[in-house]
Specification:
Blueprint lengths: L2 E6 L5 H15 L3 E6 L2 H6 L5 E3 L7 E2 L2 E2 L1 H17 L1 H11 L3 E5 L2 H9 L4 E5 L3 H4 L9 H14 L5 E5 L11 E4 L5 H4 L8 E5 L7 H6 L4 E5 L5 E3 L2 E4 L3 H10 L2 E4 L3 H9 L4 E3 L6 H12 L3 E3 L5 H9 L1 H8 L8 H14 L1
Parallel strand pairs: 1-2, 1-6, 2-3, 6-7, 7-8, 8-9, 10-11, 10-14, 11-13, 14-15, 15-16
Antiparallel strand pairs: 4-5, 12-13
């Protein structure tokens, strides 16, 4: 059995929800694990695993758009903070004496793996943008180039890259392997049904979103407002995991950002998806483009009544396409992790 340090990006919940399934599997195989993470992931994982909190790097946003210079500036500040805590962080790393390091877009453990000459495995979706051939509209090519530079600066030098995605792209490197998205067990256990409401998940404010939802004769359940209330045809819900899963299983369709985790869960449950990617978040834009190209939903930068009406009108088409979606579980990537960990120890 191996001793594994697992670094996890703490920005948002996508990295930690994906990693939690892998962590549970590694623990079930008898491996000893210490997590290096920060932010929301600390609270999400600390009840079940041993967590060591570190300063974190991430993306900076303004007006729902990624700010590249702001990202660089914020990360430089965090690196300075890390340097002050470097002795403590390095000591904890060496005390654990890992055999292998795994990272889900967390750069500090990648650096420590290199400094201590330990094998590094990267498991994320970001490296699909750098290690595979992506088709993207020409107007997004500059943002894709900038994002690739950020990804390469965050995590580099892994021995293997395991990439999760709901769409296939040609692999450019022999050290890279593409897998279906990791779906958490709570979602795998759900029984999907088609209710009479739309599920809306927004953590960022979009002008006119609420006003537009109120203008149509449909019911909406809105998560992300931070409160429980009702206004006309909209039920606002504060986030609660069990409530969220209940409404996720029973909704007709989903309206949300274009992050991989929620799109993957919606596809697994057969729910059409209206994707509104964060501006200049090229990863979300690419997810939304492929979602639309595959016929599973609609992609828009600007939410409007016309967009909503069109999405609702096309629901039968999306539902038909989703009926033949390959509902994969997580066994494929677990098998590869077993192979790699066994070969590196």
């Amino acid at each position: 059995m191996a001793k594994i340090i697992y670094g996890i990006s703490g920005q948002g919940f996508g990295h930690s929800t994906r990693s939690k399934e892998i962590l549970k599997y590694l623990a079930s195989q008898g491996h000893d694990i210490l997590i290096f993470t920060y932010g929301q992931a600390v609270f999400f994982l600390a009840d079940e695993f041993e967590v060591f909190e570190v300063p974190g790097l991430g993306l900076s946003y303004k007006d729902n758009k990624v700010v590249y210079l702001g990202t660089i500036y914020a990360n430089i500040k965090q690196l300075a903070k890390q340097s002050r805590n470097w002795t403590k962080i390095s000591r904890r790393f060496k005390e654990f004496n890992p055999d292998i390091v795994i990272t889900d877009f967390e750069p500090l453990v990648a650096i420590l793996a290199k400094l201590n000459r330990l094998p590094l495995i990267s498991i994320d979706n970001q490296h699909q943008l750098t290690n595979t051939k992506i088709n993207v509209n020409s107007k997004y090519k500059k943002d894709l180039l900038a994002d690739r530079l950020i990804i390469k600066s965050m995590v580099w030098g892994a021995k293997y890259y395991l990439v999760t995605s709901f769409f296939q792209t040609p692999i450019k490197r022999q050290d890279t392997f593409l897998f279906p998205p990791i779906v958490r067990q709570e979602v795998l256990d759900l029984k999907s049904s088609k209710g009479d409401y739309f599920l809306v998940y927004q953590t960022s404010k979009f002008d006119g979103l609420i006003r537009t939802l109120k203008s149509v004769n449909h019911q909406f359940v809105f998560f992300g407002s931070g409160s429980d209330s009702r206004e006309g045809n909209i039920t606002f819900k504060s986030f609660d995991s069990r409530e969220w899963l209940k409404y996720l299983a029973g909704c007709r369709a989903i309206i949300g950002n274009a992050g991989l985790s929620l799109i993957s869960e919606s596809l697994y449950l057969g729910k059409p998806y209206l994707a509104i990617p964060l501006g200049r978040q090229i990863e979300q834009i690419i997810n939304a483009q492929y979602l639309q190209q595959m016929g599973y939903g609609r992609f828009t930068h600007r939410f409007s009544r016309k967009v909503l009406d069109d999405f609702i009108e096309q629901l039968p088409k999306y539902e038909k396409n989703l009926s033949v979606y390959n509902h994969s579980d997580n066994k494929q990537i677990f098998k590869k992790i077993d192979e790699l960990v066994g070969g590196l120890v």
